[in-house]
Design a protein that fits this description.
With 87 residues, the chain is mainly alpha-helical. It is built from three helices and no strands.
Length: 87
Amino acid sequence: MAEIENNKRQTGPWWKPAVEIFSEISTWIIVPIVLALVGGKALDAHYGTKPIIFLSLAGFGFLITCFGIFRIVKNYMKKLKEIEKKN
């Protein structure tokens, strides 16, 4: 019984890992794309190149988002394999 209580203290609530992954992935989705869209719109307005910079930065933001999500999932899979080996 004491072993179970020690294990709970170390890992925290059962939902904590899910919230961490959700927040990391949400951040990688929102931040690069929003920054690219806001920056692209501002640069297009400044230089008079209406959709070109906007679309280019939107595509670049999408690529950054894909890279970030891939990295998070890769690290998560590594953690799952380590936990699986322990059990």
